[in-house]
Write a structure and sequence with these properties.
This protein is α/β, with parallel strands linked by helices. Helix 2 packs across helix 5. The strands form two sheets. The chain has a five-stranded parallel beta sheet with strand order 2-5-1-6-7, sandwiched between helices. Strands 3-4 form a two-stranded antiparallel sheet. It has a single domain, classed as Rossmann fold (3-Layer(aba) Sandwich). The radius of gyration is 17 Å and the shape is globular.
Length: about 200
């Protein structure tokens, strides 16, 4: 039975980079965001249902994420309806992934809202990716279409970084050198493997 390591972190903390480091080490990674993009992409399973909720947000290329974001951001009822549509399908994909890799000693579940949506209950250990606030701000505000207002809206939906770090089994620093981050990933893999052998 695999150890399932939940990987999470607030916006702009470098979680995608860290997930890639686990993959480079041969660890299977389930990417929740990628699953959502498949469900909302061209021919995606949820296109019709999303269009029914928010007419005009889909097209040949799938969901227009900017339009959909504008439709639900700041509207708790609309966001909740959308999440009730998406989360069960992502969970089905995650379960299929875990079945596929059940013989592996360690798998990673990359879930941005691990704490916020209760997914922490479905993993064995938790790793939180963290960087100083100034670096997080610089990364996020450097993205196309981002603003302070948008960043604050996203932050309002996420558990603060300090609270995530307190609840983590491992903290992966991404505010310094890439070598420091890689070393943290290697240590976590070794610790998880040792736990699997001893457990």
């Amino acid at each position: 039975m695999s150890i399932v390591l939940g990987l999470t972190g607030s916006i702009g903390m470098g979680k995608s980079t860290v997930a890639a480091m686990f993959r480079e080490k041969g660890i299977p990674v389930f990417d929740s965001d990628a699953a959502v993009r498949r469900l909302q992409g061209p021919g995606g399973l949820l296109l019709a249902a999303i269009e029914a909720l928010h007419p005009g947000v889909t097209g040949p290329g799938g969901v227009d994420r900017v339009r959909l974001g504008a439709a639900v951001m700041g509207n708790k009822i609309a966001l909740h309806r959308l999440e009730r549509l998406i989360h069960p399908e992502v969970e089905r994909e995650r379960r299929r992934f875990l079945r596929r890799y059940r013989a592996r000693p360690l798998v990673v579940a990359d879930v941005p809202l691990l704490f916020e949506k209760g997914f922490w209950r479905r993993v064995d250990l938790i790793a939180v990716v963290s960087a100083p606030a100034w670096k997080q701000n610089a990364r996020v505000l450097g993205r196309a279409g981002m603003s302070w207002a948008r960043l604050e809206q996203v932050r309002a939906l996420q558990l603060p970084d300090a609270a995530k770090r307190r609840r983590a089994d491992f903290v992966i620093p991404t505010g310094g050198s890439i070598q420091t981050t890689r070393a943290a990933v290697r240590r976590i893999i070794a610790a998880c493997m040792a736990r699997g052998i001893s457990g």
